[in-house]
Amino acid sequence: MGAFAASPAAATAAGADPLAGLTVINALGGLNDPNLDEPPRAAVTPRILRDACASGTTAVNVTIGFVAGAMEPFQHSVSEVAQWQALIRRHPRDLMLILSTADIARAKAEKKVGVILGFQNAAMMGEDASRVDIFADMGVRVIQLTYNLRNQLGDGSIVPEGRGLTDFGRAVIDRLNANRVMVDLSHSGRQICLDAARYSKQPISINHTGCRALTDLPRNKTDEELKLVADRGGFVGIYFMPFLNLSGHARAVDVVAHIEHALNVCGEDHVGIGTDGGTTPIDDLDKYAEALRKEHEDRKAKGIAAPGERADTHPFVDDLRGPDQFRKLYRLLAARGHKPARIEKVLGLNFVRYGRDVWGA
Questions:
Q1: Are 312 and 288 in contact (CB under 8 A)?
Q2: What is the pTM of this model?
């Protein structure tokens, strides 16, 4: 990986930071502070920036644009892309917009946090696949085809009918391929994932998921999906989410188990992490319980809550959160016998490889 390579000896030396020299990519995460009310416009605080930097994150795919709700999808998405572009410009010492894998290397060298702009729903395409061109030109580098529900491209993970990729979905993938934008099938139903992996001329990703063979919930992917994506050169990111355990209270051991299962199914060159969370932790979990209850009620009202979500399930892994989450994961994987070279791939180099294949150098 050239500029992305690190020294395994340095990473494993007694008392050393295991992330020293490593490229750490969160394939779906966030730059946010869950202790604060969600701001009306894109914003970061000094604490958010400190925690992201302290975590060792080289780059993170942040969700922007329309996901669900009453807002007009296209207008809302254009507005949020513009807001994030402006936010990155306001913080040039800390943040860098990622448009290519070369930018990831630059972010690492300059000790900045790279920001990858991504969508978790393609509903903003309306009936015009050429809108992909607009968003690609604006710097969006990842577009997920569906959220949990049905849209004009196909069915999300909680739609019982499980409709596959539509003709419009194929037209959108054609534009994504032409613009070298990642095709993400997180949150999708099984059939649309299989269809997209077979149809896309470029490899696709599932940037944040778990393994259904271990935890049979709709947000997790079957071995059939995981293997097909990997066999076609794609990328699979394992999340730090309640869906990793049927109890709804996933632990670090569950994250490791799902990573190991994905490695067995996909091979060590195709698995990474997409935590679906940030690096600033909740300060008061008791106080957070009420906010979580309200958020869950809102998701149920919108029809987007997935099986495995409840008012008492945290949307993160309690013992794998905060600025040290990636260091702890490194040590847990090392304790399981995984060698430094494999752990480096999981923490970032596999995403870099996939990014180079889709975005180019």
A1: no
A2: 0.94
